[in-house]
């Protein structure tokens, strides 16, 4: 009886009011159970005690009859032949305690799915694989076929995926009875875990295949020819349904996603279907005009005309000389960005000529930007 006196009130323990609804009780319990669960607090005796107390409180308060008795008689209701017959009889089984299983289901989900055997013997789909494949800009321009090879879990050829040597049917796991989960009792509360015998599969193979050790799959190199169409963009994904990992227990295979990574080019910068190219030209060509030679993505060269008086950064658009457009016979444009280069390391002769050029240039309209700037400065003062 003295232990009864020392016991904390169940409502206080869960941190709810006496009028708490079932939902409030469940939510309060769930929070505590998550917080103090032994999986999260290994070797922590205090957490374990709190976990047990929360379990006990919730077990009583979530049962309408027990809650009514508790409200009338307090802890005494469950002492010495009270309703539940004390701790031992409080029903650790699956019986009158519904909320428990749900909550643990939720919790194990939150813990990252211990065992993961929810589905028991249901077929599992194989994983979808992502294969990053690098292609050059030229390859993206004209399209290309590439052979890739990668290790992947495939259906075991020795046992044809059954996992057993003699192709015998898998047997129901004796530990969990095929559920894939086991209920463990610790004192009066119970918890569910993934079955350790069958790893949550629900079945075991008594004569495992020597090749795949009962897994039904082995990891083997897979070769695949990938056709990359012209005009693909960086990040384009080519999908191969069923090209991924083999499934288990008759499950469908996963898919394969080949994700294209178009390499940066040393000359061209791609923007959508257009190609930009920075072309340095001498200041003399810029001033007098002339022809420049530019390369194209399809391996030719083109002549482009520089107008006399071309300024730095001026762009020239060459229509239809850009990237091929995916699923079309069109092409984007090539855009030339002129970069005017000022000569360096001048000889005495060159300096002389430029000096002379400067002297004869005077002030009349050869440098409109310089003159405009000087004018604006003058107006400032
Ligand atoms: Zn096998
Ligand atoms: Zn099992």
Explain how this protein is built:
This protein is of the alpha+beta class. It folds into 3 domains: 2-110, Helix Hairpins; 129-262, HSP40/DNAj peptide-binding domain; 268-380, Sandwich (HSP40/DNAj peptide-binding domain), CATH 2.60.260. The chain has 10 helices and 15 strands. The strands form 6 sheets. Strands 10-11-15-14 form a 4-stranded mixed sheet. Strands 1-9-8 form a 3-stranded mixed sheet. Strand 10 and strand 11 (274-282) form a beta hairpin. Residues 1-5, 81-99 and 105-120 have low confidence and may be disordered. It binds zinc ion (2 copies). Residues 173, 175-176, 180, 195, 197-198, 202 line the site of one zinc ion (ZN).
């Amino acid at each position: 009886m003295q232990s009864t006196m020392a016991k904390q009130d169940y409502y206080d323990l869960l941190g709810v009011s006496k009028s708490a609804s079932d939902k409030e009780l469940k939510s309060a319990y769930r929070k505590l159970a998550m917080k103090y669960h032994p999986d999260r607090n290994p070797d922590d005796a205090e957490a374990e005690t709190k976990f047990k107390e929360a379990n006990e409180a919730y077990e009583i308060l979530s049962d309408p009859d027990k809650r009514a008795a508790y409200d009338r008689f307090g802890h005494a209701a469950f002492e010495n032949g009270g309703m539940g017959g004390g701790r031992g009889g409080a029903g650790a089984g699956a019986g009158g305690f519904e909320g428990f299983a749900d909550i643990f289901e939720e919790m194990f989900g939150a813990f990252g799915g211990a065992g993961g055997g929810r589905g028991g013997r249901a077929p599992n789909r194989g994983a979808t694989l992502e294969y990053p494949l690098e292609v050059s800009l030229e390859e993206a321009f004209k399209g290309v076929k590439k052979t890739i090879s990668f290790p992947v879990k495939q259906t075991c050829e020795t046992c044809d995926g059954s996992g057993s040597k003699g192709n015998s049917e898998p047997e129901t796991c004796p530990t969990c009875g095929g559920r894939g989960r086991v209920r463990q009792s610790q004192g009066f509360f119970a918890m569910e875990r993934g079955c350790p015998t069958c790893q949550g599969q629900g079945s075991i193979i008594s004569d495992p295949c020597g090749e795949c050790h009962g897994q039904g799959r082995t990891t083997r190199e897979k070769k695949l020819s990938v056709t990359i169409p012209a005009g693909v963009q960086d990040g384009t994904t080519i999908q191969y349904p069923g090209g991924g990992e083999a499934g288990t227990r008759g499950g469908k295979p996963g898919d394969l996603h080949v994700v294209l990574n178009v390499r940066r080019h040393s000359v061209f910068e791609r923007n959508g279907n257009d190609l930009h190219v920075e072309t340095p030209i001498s200041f003399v060509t810029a001033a007098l005009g002339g022809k420049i030679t530019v390369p194209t993505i399809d391996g030719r060269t083109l002549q482009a005309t520089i107008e006399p008086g071309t300024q730095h950064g001026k762009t020239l658009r060459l229509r239809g000389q850009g990237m091929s457009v995916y699923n079309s016979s069109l092409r984007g444009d090539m855009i030339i960005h002129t970069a005017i280069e000022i000569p360096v390391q001048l000889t005495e002769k060159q300096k002389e000529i430029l000096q002379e050029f400067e002297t004869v240039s005077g002030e009349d309209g050869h440098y409109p930007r310089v003159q405009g700037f000087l004018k604006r400065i003058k107006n400032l003062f």
